Amino acid sequence: MTDRLALVGIAVAAAVLAVLELFFLPLRLDGTLLPRLNDWPFPITVVPAVVTTPLLVALASRYARTTPGAASPLLVWMGTLLVFGLLGPGGDVLLLADWRTLLLFAGGVLPSAVAVGAFMGRQARGGSDH
Hints:
The chain is mainly α. The protein has one domain. The chain contains four helices and two strands; from the N terminus they run H-E-E-H-H-H. The protein has a two-stranded antiparallel ribbon. Strand 1 and strand 2 form a beta hairpin.
């Protein structure tokens, strides 16, 4: 029961991070929130995605017994980005049609897929983190 509760908490954290990363993805150096520098895009939220999503997968792999359980933070993160990005508040599409969205997805998915692969490798060897 404790393992399931931990996995639910990790999934909630993944969803909250996905929403925050999505909402702040359109930041620009336009002088409004950040300093003015030719209105350049500033996708700083990719950095937390690169760091936190694989960490959540690694944390979930401590409590999960199966690959879907270990991958649940990644799946929740991707699902949250897609749902909120395509069906945002008021019907707005929040996913940008440019390189920043691709960078966000790649930054969150690729390192997390490596973490899921590490879990699968440990399972294949018969090892366990428990």
